[in-house]
Amino acid sequence: MHRGNDGSMNWNGLEIPDNPYFYDEDVVIYNADCREILPRLLDKSIDLVLTDPPYNLSSYSTGNMELSWRKTINNDLAEWDLNSFEPAEWLSDFMRVLKPTGNIFAFTSYNLMGKWHEVFDPAFDTFQYMVWHKTNPVPKIRRAGFLNSCELIICVWDKGHTWNFTNQKEMHNFIQSPICMGNERVKNPVHPTQKPLKVLEHIIKLASDEGDTVLDPFLGSGTTAVASKLLNRKCIGIEISEKYCEIAVKRLSQQVMKLNIKEQPDA
Q1: Domain residues of the chain, as ranges?
Q2: What is the percent of the chain with per-residue pLDDT over 90, rounded to a whole number?
């Protein structure tokens, strides 16, 4: 691994900031504020930005619901959701690092969709959205409104962007999947907005090619990195919380073990 005098290192032919929390041949993770790392990434070096930034929904939360007949319904969000997220603050860096053939997919919520559209629609040729339908959303015990069974994903690109599909059935802007359950769910520490591998794998297959580089500046528990590795993509992940960086590395190592087992020849 070549290290430059300017505090950078060469990783898969890219000059990236030195001193990552973790790296291997496919994934590099920084334990830092992404606003410190993003400006140091090279222009036109990223094929896909796939990320899940804060939704700023904390002010709408009614808090956890304690019930005698079932486990607590968790309505609380993490402390980082209290920090204001403004899509306009990310436009210039996303545009700078993205290749002309690149795509941006970002999870969001109803309260921020308008802000994303206001800023990103004029800057790109196309602004669309996807809907992730959760088949097992948190129940509404009081039946006072709709179940929160859908999440929005903004989709942005220019003409000539990478786009992989073989038939019209694959082109629905709708994907259905349960929220993370069972062994996939990170339990210690719990990540309140962990996304399923199935959803991220669908997006990565659609919007990038094998060998491409995926950027997730809000890596969380590492799902984007794991999905990228599974699909033979490279991934640069940035996560401000060390405990989630630790979880991401653990998940990657577990995935490598599974891949190695699968690749073992039959006796």
Answers
A1: 8-263
A2: 66
The DSSP result for 164-202, as a single string, is --SSGGGG-SEEEEPPS-GGGS-BTTB-TTPPPHHHHHH
Per CATH, domain 8-263 is 3.20.20.410: no
In the DSSP assignment, the letter for residue 235 is E
Enumerate residues 6+ apart whose C-beta is below 8 A from 36: none
**Computed from CA positions of residues 142, 144, 149, 151, in that sequence, does the dihedral angle turn out positive or negative?**
negative
Order of strands, edge to edge, in the sheet holding 150-157?
Answer: 22-23, 27-31, 234-239, 213-216, 46-51, 98-108, 150-157, 126-134, 174-177
Neighbour-count burial for 180-210, b at 16+ CB within 10 Å, e otherwise? beeeeebeeeebebbbbbebbbbbbbbbbee
User: Tens digit of pLDDT for each residue in 221-236?
Assistant: 999 999 999 999 999 9
> pTM (2 decimals)?
0.88
Contact 225, 219 (CB under 8 A): yes
Secondary structure (3-state) at 40: helix
